[in-house]
Design goal:
The protein is an alpha+beta fold. It contains five helices and three strands, in the order αβββαααα. The chain binds zinc ion.
């Protein structure tokens, strides 16, 4: 894709965010902000018994790149096993975004991944049945 198409792709995700909202019975729920830009991203993940991402939603506000990045990331991880999600790198996400991200915008672009990783590593094990 050309740069223009990638920019359109980002704007489309910003204007029409995928998986936007909250999950009531999330296994993982985490939110963080980026004070430099005022961005906020929160991610809710519902894991099934095999630790696959059965559902994921994000919420937040802020600049286009931060929100588009979160939208793109939720699309990417839906259905993935938690181990695959853990293996996603900054470079993977930047590649998905497809545009050249300046140093000042890097924190915006990577906020969603930071939230995702912090949320995942914040949980230890799948809760027992009776705790559901
Ligand atoms: Zn930002």
């Amino acid at each position: 894709m050309s740069d223009d198409l990638y920019r359109e792709y980002i704007l489309d995700h910003y204007k029409n965010p995928r998986n936007f909202g909250r999950l009531e019975h999330a296994t993982i729920s985490h939110e963080e902000g980026n004070p430099l830009c005022g961005d906020v991203v929160g991610i809710d993940i519902l894991l099934d018994k095999d630790n696959n991402v059965a559902d994921v939603k994000f919420h937040g506000r802020g600049c286009a790149i931060s929100q588009a990045s979160a939208s793109i990331l939720t699309e990417k991880i839906k259905g993935m096993n938690i181990e695959q999600v853990k293996a996603i790198t900054k470079d993977d996400l930047l590649e998905e975004l497809g545009i050249e991200v300046s140093a000042t915008r890097l924190k915006c672009a990577l906020l969603s991944l930071k939230v995702l990783k912090a949320g995942i590593y914040g949980i230890s094990t799948w809760p027992d049945e009776e705790e559901e």
